[in-house]
Amino acid sequence: MDDKATQAEAGREPHSSGVRSVRRALDILNLLSEDRPVITLREITDATGLAKTTALRLIQTLEESGLLWSDPAGYTAGPGLWRWAYLARSQWDVPRETRKVMRDLSDRLGETVNLFVARDLNRVCVAHEESPHPLRHVVDVGDEQPLWAGASSKILLRNASETQLRRIAAASPHGEEYADRLRTRAQEAAERGYAVSSSEWDDGLTAVAVPITGRSGTVIASLSLSGPSQRFPYEAVERFAADLAEAAALISDQGFSHPLSHGR
User: Fold this and answer.
1) The domain that contains 28 carries what CATH number?
2) H-assigned helices in 30-95
3) What's the number of domains the chain is made of?
4) Residue 2: is its pLDDT beyond 70?
5) For tag attachment on the chain, is the N or C end more exposed, with fewer CB atoms within 10 Å?
6) What's the pLDDT score for residue 262?
7) 0.85 exceeded by pTM
């Protein structure tokens, strides 16, 4: 191997190692959740497959950065995440008038209202208003769900390219041939004005979704109503769709925008 090749190889190794370390550190942080706010070293090594010494080294770095905090029971989110959380909230929070429309809709219909935008192969919940019922559909802001299933996906795929549809289909359990079904469902939803799904992603869950459009008329988000299937009989679906369409038109007229919807 000549000198130039040796230098190039040496230059690649630290970069690759650095990227791997960042991914491992993020894997540790991703173990934290509302259901598991504290994680132990054993849980970290079991979940990530990291050696104990490697995990401890990454934990120490995360602690020094303020991203993890030592707790008597293990490790929890550090104060450094507050700054990131505040920044994310200021950039990602939907307009106040949009929230009001969603809240009014949820109060009136008694079911959970979600706002989704497309991101690569998934859809991301950027806002929600939960149903007052004890038995309800819960999706947290930031949650991602695949674009190959669900009422909102059928809405968001209206303007999808053939390449995107095939990528989404390939990531599904059905394979790349499923792209034809995705296209058909999106077209049917566009013609009807709304989309419906039942147990496509969550068993026993029914959802109704309508488009939110930008100034050019392109679909930039979906507004959906979801809940247990027993509370979504056919006659209710028709009424829900009409109420959703009215709310979505109001949000569209307000000039809804979100970082993930830019360029759509």
Assistant:
1) 1.10.10.10
2) 41-48, 52-64, 80-92
3) 2
4) no
5) N
6) 53
7) no
